[in-house]
Amino acid sequence: MINKHGRDILTILAGGWLLISPWVMNYYNLGLAAWSASIVGGALILSEIAAFVRPGAWEELLDLGLGAYLICSPYLLGFTSSAKVADNTGMIGLLVIGIAIMGFMDEPDAQRWWYDHMHRTD
User: Fold this and answer.
1) Residue 10 Rama label (left phi>0; alpha psi -120 to 50; beta)
2) b/e burial code for range 21-38 (CB count within 10 A of at least 16 → b)
3) Which residues contact 2 (CB under 8 A, 6 or more apart)?
4) Out of 4-8, 46-50, 110-114, which region has the weakest mean confidence (pLDDT)?
5) Which of 69, 80, 72 lies closest to 30, judged by CA?
6) Residue 6 Cα to chain centre, angstroms
7) Do 66 and 43 meet the contact criterion of CB atoms below 8 Å apart?
8) What pLDDT does residue 31 have?
9) HEC profile for 23-85?
């Protein structure tokens, strides 16, 4: 399993890719798709930097939300007709969600919650 700093670096790389992907993949002219990718990429990078200062489950929860948004964004923003852009955001969304789930399962509060709910006797 990847350690915390490895997960943070992977998420920063995913965010960095989203930030520059409109220009690298030449879809900067798609308006909302480009803005969405850049904003979410920046948010992922900032959340990981903030997590170095104040670690906690909040970061994984934010990443779960951002990942889910990335998967849904082609439908929400109407760029499903551009398959390469929709696939890019969807794959990055799945990657971010996977990393967030791994991180969430390493959080002591999440482990305690899981244990309490799996070993309930009432």
Assistant:
1) alpha
2) bbeebebeebeebbebbb
3) 10, 99, 102
4) 110-114
5) 80
6) 14
7) yes
8) 87
9) HHCCCHHHCHHHHHHHHHHHHHHHHHHHHHHCCCHHHHHHHHHHHHHHHHHHHHHCCCCCHHH
- Do residues 84 and 25 touch, judged by C-beta distance below 8 A? yes
- Both tokens of residue 70? 């990335």
In the prediction, which pLDDT does 121 show? 65
Cα 23 to Cα 62: distance, rounded to the nearest angstrom: 26
Q: What is the pLDDT of residues 20-54, one digit of tens each?
A: 999 999 888 888 999 999 999 999 999 999 887 87
**The tokens 């970061």 sit on which residue?**
59
Task: Copy the structure tokens of residue 99.
Answer: 């990393």
Structure tokens at 115: 């244990």
User: Can you give the pTM of this predicted structure?
Assistant: 0.84
Give pLDDT tens digits for 58-111.
Answer: 788 899 999 999 999 999 998 888 899 999 999 999 999 999 998 888 777 767
Here the tokens at position 42 are: 């920046």
